[in-house]
Design brief:
Helix content of chain A: 25-40%
Mean pLDDT of chain A: 89
Low-confidence stretches of chain A: 1-24
CATH topology of one domain in chain B: Enolase-like, domain 1
Mean pLDDT of chain B: 97
Strand content of chain B: 15-25%
CATH architecture of the largest domain in chain A: Roll
Strand order of the largest sheet of chain A: 1-3-2-6-4-5
CATH superfamily of the largest domain in chain A: Beta-grasp domain
Distance between the termini of chain B: 50 Å
Order of helices and strands of chain B: EHEHEEEHHHHHHHEEEEEEEHHH
Largest sheet of chain B: 5 strands, antiparallel
Number of domains of chain A: 2
Structural class of chain A: alpha/beta
Structural class of chain B: alpha+beta
Number of strands of chain A: 6
CATH topology of the largest domain in chain A: Ubiquitin-like (UB roll)
Strand content of chain A: 15-25%
CATH architecture of one domain in chain B: 2-Layer Sandwich
Oligomer: heterodimer
Number of strands of chain B: 12
CATH class of the largest domain in chain A: Alpha Beta
CATH superfamily of one domain in chain B: CO dehydrogenase flavoprotein, C-terminal domain
Number of helices of chain B: 12
CATH class of one domain in chain B: Alpha Beta
Bound molecules: flavin-adenine dinucleotide, iron/sulfur cluster, FE2/S2 (inorganic) cluster
Helix content of chain B: 25-40%
Largest interface: A-B, 36 and 31 residues
Number of helices of chain A: 6
Shape of chain B: globular
Shape of chain A: globular
Chain lengths: ~190, ~325
């Protein structure tokens, strides 16, 4: 099911885009580009400025504000999402370059009204204070377990080091990853 | 960020066509984007064309191949995939470790090996366009770091025009192991030693590599050698993880009955380009690895070193890092 959203593109630019048609190789760098992005299992047909980062597209164009902007320069991990199941930084990804890939954000983690085991584990272990870094931490932690990089406390700390927490909830984050790890492994065996 | 034209190159030929067509404007290839987009946001890099080469990942550009003769790494292999490769970890540990100890897992999932060796310096004055004086960014404007805050800057390979550190890790492993790189450009293909890729800053710090206009890195080749298995990468930094090196050492050692038959040494965090410490290698050949020999090697490696104030400590730190790395390599059980 495709939803069309051009809300973020100003009307005059929309008109220009309509004239330019759907052509991908535009010669005017200021003309909006058209792309279909697959986010949390749903296709979104969008028109946006080519400079738009995946993070800004999620937050500003689609209202998916779970992914956070901490630094916008790859230094904090708050914007972590999954691209084809691998954790990446959405602030250093061009939205246009994410076409044809499966994007999963924190909003796409819960299934059938049930929190993902990692989300539940962060709640159970108080894996946060202010919560700003938390969506990025959780996305990163889910991938960390899938990568099989969560076997010891030291390994969890090393492979979660790309997610900074200004509140320093680190010990509780390690505890949360340890709680969720066996549950995720059981779930994937079923 | 300035506007640009985005093109996706479905093949190597398409990439060459796109870059040739864009010849009058400034074009950049886009791999992981972790250097390029970062610096475009800061207005330090200003391409008018961005040519996305990620579709080439499905070809030889994205492949890892290992055989008797050596290791071949496609330039679009992601750092994480090379770091996690069991055969690379076992047979070329210095390569796997230099990648695993770099950046974060998210960045390593995105960043390509080709982009990695072409990453730009983290010099604050280079990254912040509000500083007028930066010869690398703005040739002839001076160097704000010489008398500025230069704790992270280089002590080897510097010039009066630029003292910026080459921030990467993988490049040091490559130069230690005598790697070469395969290139393709609008005028054809060529292969050059990795050691010839980067240029010393001298009086043109803005010219960082010997790549010709439009040239694309296809792959890296690391020849098999008796020293690759007993190899390691030691990285010393301000925090334990997710940080650039203050000092680092790439060591590959071939020893028999406690004597050094051959050794390859490169040093990071302290130099303006990937840095091979040939003088230290010469000191060690034929000797046993002990406190005296590693101290002599470390002194030899830093003979020409020059601090600029805040970074004076890097000379001693670099020597200790090299000494410790050599002793760890000698003690490895393989
Ligand atoms: C917060 C942070 C921490 C980091 N820490 C470390 C660290 O500790 N150690 C370390 O080594 N690195 C570190 N990095 C740097 C990171 O590893 C590099 O940014 C990355 O490897 C670049 O690869 P890329 O594929 O993203 O390159 P891109 O950004 O896509 O490209 C970089 C440059 O290379 C060119 N290019 C890319 N591929 C090719 C090719 N095949 N042929 C010709 N030109 C090409 C591009 O045009 C561009 O000019 C860090 C980066 C960040 C943001
Ligand atoms: S050290 Fe090099 S990059 Fe840094 S300000 Fe000086 S010229 Fe620029
Ligand atoms: S917002 Fe992307 S890493 Fe900080
Ligand atoms: S909970 Fe506040 S930054 Fe992590």
């Amino acid at each position: 099911m495709a939803t069309v959203s051009t809300a973020a593109v100003p009307a005059f630019a929309r008109a220009a885009a309509a004239q330019a048609g759907a052509s991908q190789t535009v010669s005017n760098p200021r003309a909006p580009v058209d792309a279909t992005l697959t986010i949390n299992g749903r296709d979104h047909v969008l028109a946006f400025d080519v400079r738009t980062s995946l993070l800004d597209l999620l937050r500003e164009h689609l209202g998916l504000t779970g992914s956070k902007k901490g630094c916008d320069h790859g230094q904090c991990g708050a914007c972590t999402v999954l691209l084809d199941g691998r954790r990446i930084l959405s602030c250093l990804t061009l939205a246009i370059a994410a076409q044809g890939r499966d994007i999963t954000t924190i909003e796409g983690l819960a299934a059938n009204g049930q929190l993902h085991p990692m989300q539940q584990a962060f709640i159970d272990n108080d894996g946060f204070q202010c919560g700003y870094c938390t969506p990025g931490q959780i996305m990163s932690a889910v991938a960390c377990v899938h990568e099989n990089h969560a076997n010891t406390d030291d390994e969890i700390r090393e492979y979660m080091s790309g997610n900074l927490c200004r509140c320093a909830a680190y010990p509780n984050i390690v505890a949360a990853v340890k709680q969720a790890r066996p549950l995720m492994q059981t779930a994937s065996r079923d | 960020m300035r506007p640009f034209i985005y093109e996706r190159a479905p093949s190597r030929n398409a990439a060459m066509q796109a870059v040739t067509a864009a010849v009058d404007t400034k074009a950049s290839y886009l791999a992981g984007g972790t250097t390029l987009l970062d610096l475009m946001k800061l207005d330090v890099m200003r391409p008018q064309h961005v040519i996305d080469i990620n579709a080439l990942e499905r070809t030889v550009h994205g492949r890892i191949e290992l055989d008797r003769n050596g290791l071949r790494l496609g330039a679009l292999v992601r750092m994480a995939d090379a770091a996690d490769h069991p055969d690379i970890q076992q047979q070329y540990p210095v390569i796997a470790q230099s990648l695993q100890l770099a950046a974060s897992q998210q960045l390593r999932n995105m960043a390509s090996l080709g982009g990695n060796v072409l990453q730009r310096t983290r010099c604050t004055y280079f990254r912040d366009v509000s500083y007028a004086a930066c010869n690398k960014r703005n040739p002839g404007s001076g160097c704000a770091a010489l008398d500025g805050f230069n704790r992270m800057h280089a002590v080897l390979g510097t010039s009066d025009h630029c003292i910026a550190t080459y921030a990467g890790d993988f490049g040091h492993a490559l130069i230690a192991l005598d790697a070469s790189i395969d290139l393709v450009g609008p005028d054809g293909t060529r292969t050059i030693p990795f050691a010839e890729l980067h240029r010393l800053p001298s009086d043109t710090p803005d010219q960082e590599t010997t790549l010709r206009p439009g040239e694309l890195i296809v792959s890296f080749t690391v020849p098999a050698a008796p020293w690759t298995r007993r190899s390691l990468y030691l990285k010393v930094r301000d925090r334990q993880s997710y940080e650039f090196a203050l000092a680092s050492a790439a060591i590959a050692l071939d020893q028999q009955d406690g004597t050094v038959r051959d050794v390859r040494i490169a040093l990071g965090g302290i130099s303006t380009v990937p840095w091979r410490a040939v003088e230290a290698e010469t000191v060690l050949r034929g000797k046993a690895i002990d406190e005296d020999s590693v101290a002599a090697a470390a002194d030899a490696a830093f003979v020409g070193a020059k601090g600029h104030g805040h970074n004076d400590f890097k000379v001693e730190l670099g020597k200790r890092t090299l000494s410790r790395a050599l002793q760890q390599a000698a003690a490895l059980e393989i």
